[in-house]
């Protein structure tokens, strides 16, 4: 905080999220982080995290949230979320309602991005769900992997498949074995090593 304080003082009306984002970027730089997952705080287009030039952009399942800020239709919300899509950067999307999917695909096409949709290029099969976690198969264009996640809920199956597709299409050098180990140990908390 002390190191960033002089810079924060020069900019009026910074939000807590903007300051926290800057602190995270500084921590990543100091630790020479190879790969970081940067999640938007709200929306995407005007979010503090949108200064990043990503290896891959990921849009998870959209719903009616923050409608006072993002808009009152799925198309408007998708437009704000699609604001993270950069020219030529691959995009992976969780399954979307048609209204949202049309917007995301249009923006990806306009920005000349490879577009991957879970359920189309990467299929998902739930194997088992219990209070101890869930098992699933993710079948991609050139891969098939069995994953075990300790998180509950059908949305976590979709999120795991989306994350796997992002790793496989984003040019991140990680093996299926490493992905399986990471997914099986993930507890929902951020990791900074």
Structural class by helix and strand composition: alpha/beta
Strand content: 15-25%
The total count of helices amounts to 7
Cross-sheet strand order for the largest sheet:
1-2-3
Fraction of helical residues: 25-40%
Number of E-state strands: 6
Structure description:
With 193 residues, the protein is of the alpha/beta class. The chain has 3 domains: 1-33; 36-117, no CATH class; 118-186, no CATH class. Helices cover 37% and strands 17% of the residues. It contains 7 helices and 6 strands; from the N terminus they run ααβααβαββββαα. It has a 3-stranded parallel sheet, with helices on both faces. A 3-stranded antiparallel sheet has the order 4-5-6. β2, α5 (98-110) and β3 form a beta-alpha-beta unit. The chain starts with a helix and ends in an 8-residue tail after the last helix. The mean pLDDT is 93.
Helices and strands, with pairings:
Blueprint: H1 5-9, H2 16-30, E1 57-59, H3 67-70, H4 74-81, E2 91-93, H5 98-110, E3 115-117, E4 123-130, E5 133-140, E6 143-149, H6 154-169, H7 176-185
Parallel strand pairs: 1-2, 2-3
Antiparallel strand pairs: 4-5, 5-6
Helix pairs in contact: 4-5
